[in-house]
Design a protein that fits this description.
The structure holds 2 protein chains of 2 kinds. By secondary structure, chain A is an alpha/beta fold. In chain A, 42% of the residues lie in helices and 23% in strands. Chain A has one domain: Pyruvate-ferredoxin Oxidoreductase, domain 3. In chain A, strands 2-3-1-4-5-6 form a 6-stranded mixed sheet, sandwiched between helices. The longest helix of chain A is centred in the C-terminal third of the chain and has 21 residues. By secondary structure, chain B is an alpha/beta fold. Chain B has 4 domains: 217 residues, Thiamin diphosphate (ThDP)-binding fold, Pyr/PP domains (Rossmann fold); 101 residues, Rossmann fold (3-Layer(aba) Sandwich), CATH 3.40.50.920; 162 residues, Rossmann fold (3-Layer(aba) Sandwich), CATH 3.40.50.970; 60 residues, Alpha-Beta Plaits, CATH 3.30.70. Chain B contains 21 helices and 22 strands. In chain B, strand 17, helix 20 and strand 18 form a beta-alpha-beta unit. In chain B, helix 1 packs across helix 7, helix 3 runs parallel beside helix 5 and helix 11 packs across helix 14. The chains are: A alpha/beta, B alpha/beta. At the A-B interface, helix 1, strand 2, helix 2, helix 3 and helix 4 of A face strand 8, helix 11 and strand 20 of B.
Chain lengths: 199, 604
Amino acid sequence: MNTIVNIRLATVGGQGGVLASSVIAQAAFDAGLQVKKREVHGMSQRGGVVTSDVRFGPVVHSPMVPEGAVDILLGFEQGEALRAVHDLRPGGVVIVNTQVIVPPIVATGKASYPVNPLATLREKASRVYAVDALKIAEDAGSVKAVSTVMVGALSAFVDFPEDAWLKAIRGKVPPKTVALNERAFAAGRAVVQAASRGA
Amino acid sequence: MATRLQIPPAGTRLLLTGNQACALAAATFGCNLGVGYPGTPSSEILDALVMIAGSHTTQWETNEKTAVEKALGASMAGGRVIVTMKHVGVNVAADPLLSFASTFNSGLVLVVGDDPGAHSSQNEQDTRMFMGLFANLPILAPSDSQEVYDFVGAAFEISDRFRTPVVLRLTTNICHAETPVVTAEPMVHRPAGYVNNFPNNVVLPANFRKLRHRSLHERLPALTEYAETATLTREDAGTRPEFGIITEGVSYAHVKEVVGEAIPILKLGMVFPLPLGRIARFVADHPKTVVCEELEPYVELQTKAEGIPILGGKAFFPREGEFTAGVVAQGLAAAGLPVKEPTAAAAPVPGVPRPPTLCPGCPHRATFYVLNRMKANVFGDIGCYTLGGLEPLSALHACICMGASIGMAAGVATVARPETPVVAILGDSTFLHSGITPLLGARWNGADFTVVILDNGITAMTGGQPNPGVESTLEGASTPKTDIEALVRALGVEHIAVVDGYDVARIKEALTAAVAHPGVAVVISRRPCALMPTKRHYKVLRVDHGKCIGCHTCVKVGCPAISLSDELTDKGRRKSYIDPRACIGCTVCQQVCPVGAIVDLEAV
């Protein structure tokens, strides 16, 4: 790996975005790379915008991905992927969970949710992989595993040994949920591997 | 309490946040006491320290001032102590800090998390100005987790050598960034023991004047000499020696990102006192030098005051907000330094606003719903419940700092009482932090308004830390909890009501009676936080579309679990929908629904 890989996670508070970024950073660290990670979360415990950056490579200076330099955007929700897509570099990859989380401000009529965010994402980025992470997580045993499904999807684009990912997951998730998260990771990885072979 | 983690042997490589690195360093370098008050971005330092095995004690205190006062005692007893807080916490703790700063005591490291950009704060004040130029305390400014770790050790050494408290100044992207750390040899510090020292520890005017003189004319010059040679500050060589950049903290990471090895950098590790001799030599060697620092022109002003000819600082970089690589590249280019064209973001795509919101099942929601309906003038405070001011609840109209709600309400009620009710609202932790004394004063002076204490039994916004209203300490020891009702009664308040935070009708009834009561009345709205210590679940609800009339009353409680479905009423209005994965069954929406359309998920 000769260049820095810049990953941004665009998530909603409560989706496990911070855990996912920790898993990615740990996997890169265990793979012997230099790695830096940062997260930004606002005031609320749930339901607000939560953004994480993970950067790894031979030498990494800042924990923040520079403007317009995101290589892989991991959008945990369609609207959040849309919010972050302007920082994607030309030719960058978008992996987006097709889940939609409508904020209360939409129900009260003060704002509207974007119409067909996936289509807009496909206009803005050449490589967009849509993943129904909620359904995959539910099938794996719990909707709480959405973040691990997304890590699995990401893993198809990052050249670490599968063991490095699994070791990082085992070290970060609650012990009782290891099997569930291993299933979620494998399912997320498989769905993107299949899609990228088809592409 | 889960099993505590052992301190790793020297040479272990770990990936740690700045906060975790700070905690591990404290334990490694013999800290005897970690104490503080939670505040983003600093909260996780003690959350991490309590999980590390060792002989140290880890405690949350009632507020930042009491935390510092406990640290003063620990220092007087010859112990090593870290005291943690966010930038605005230093304001609360300023009284003991500013006087203690002139005494000669060892072992005290004040760790402050500043929040440039005010991600989760009411302001973005710069601790370097306050604790450096104003309080004359040495300040170390690490740039990543390894430096946080190393500088904690250095801070203890400086504190012991110069007999002064030392400040470790962190910022959000240091505290919450994970970067690699290589660990050092663990050590144990045995407190020397407490010895009375009247001339040093009693700041009577006669004593203070001598201490002040010594601290300014002996200690400060010695610290300055140390700063001039300390390895905490270092230079990075560059291929273009006519240029130079002076920087510190997280700004260093952005500068390196932009210039790499091209431009020489003076990276300041100790930022008070500044090594002005070293800065002068650097600028002499690199005539076109700029100062790149987040927030205030702290280094810039002192450098200019010394007559050192720099190109400038805030002429090129913003004084507000958080730096990014792009901001730094733009500033360097404006100063005429050679930087390659930075990558730039495309135009943002219009998306959905997602303001922070109270969680599904939050026990504060119903109280704000009722206050909104009462058209109350609500003086708020610092906590999750500040979000009660946002739409659609819109029932909080002033918020300045921790504990200010009661004083502000009392002031308004005294000077120009509005027609509609005057209400102060604050959480249990904030009430215990700094709400008791203003309530005492308001009652004593005969003010007439209502105080609502939202008692969710935790300090929620910072991640769920215990407070004196909880039956457990940070270390997990069981302890009698403060009875808030008895406390309020002891302050002399006669009209007190305790209600269930989920009971809309009872909250309305209690608030109506409290507002009608002449004098200070207190309503305690009680229900555990929906998330802490573990997420709570009651009976999940759903909307019966056969009954829903599309009136959207449930939407007005502002719950993230409620949205509008595509199902329409006869009049074409969208019926409501409850996400069963988000709902925890608090029933507040069910109580306000006028037609009984919200039912148990399982009900047929």
